[in-house]
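Amino Acid Chain and Its Fold in Token Form
===========================================
What this section holds: a protein sequence and its matching fold, both as plain text.
Structure line: whole-number tokens from a learned vocabulary of local backbone shapes, matched to residues.
Purpose: to set a sequence beside its fold so the mapping can be learned.
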Amino acid sequence: MIQGATSGIGAETAKVLAKRGVRIIIPARDLKKATKVKEIIQKECPNAEIILLEIDLSSFASIQRFCSEFLSLGMPLHILINNAGKYSQKLEFSEDKIEMSFATNYLGHFLLTEMLLGKMIETASDTGIQGRIVNVSSVIHNWVKRDNFCFNKMLNPKSYNGTLAYAQTKLANILHAKELSRQLEARKANVTINSVHPGIVKTGIIRDHKGFITDSLYFMASKLLKSTSQGAATTCYVALSGKVAEASGRYFADCNESHCSTLANDEIEARNLWNQTRALIHKQFVQP
């Protein structure tokens, strides 16, 4: 299952996995875009099995509906790639009244993973095949300082900087992987979770940032950016390679384990974020 697979890295990741014979589930807010991706992949891989289901990752209710629909299909779930990314130049709120990038990039992935985790653990137990969860993060998580990383302020910021808000969600993705990895190990579940930095890739998010820099600087920087296929490489490596079977709670870049920030490595911070997130979900919205 690949979130954010209607364009960019997610679409490329779906194509690579389909070529490896993996059945692909594409949850999408825009089913027309998802259908186009499916058609493109099946032109190259006529036998690819691709299932499209509707979801709005910024909406807790939509995530619940999606998970109920998927689980009702009775299919196994070996791989979950949390790849969807939202960057907002201006302050926006989800239908749940949460800042949009935090709702989509972190809380949406957190809730989806929680609701599907039982199925992943069951699938791994039944098949003997290790389950893999991959959180697509970013090197930009390094920009976040401890003083700026406050759960309640991220939910409803009084002042807003789009780049900082995006960076905070990417830090949260790494902390999520770190804490969930600890819990999975404690449960002796045959499921791993890691986070990856795909590189700075020519995607829609980069185009959204363009308004903050000059056209000439953007042109020069774009020459150094990775292609979508290069950007998808680390995600696919962590999702599929036997070389990372023992790795969980780690951070990867360029198909190698890499270093993340001191804050991203903080186990207490990871546990605190987990507890605050669970409390929010349980108290205000749903009970996963």
Q: What stands out?
A: The first strand starts at residue 24 and ends at 28. The beta strands are 24-28, 50-54, 79-82, 131-136, 191-197, 251-253, 256-257.
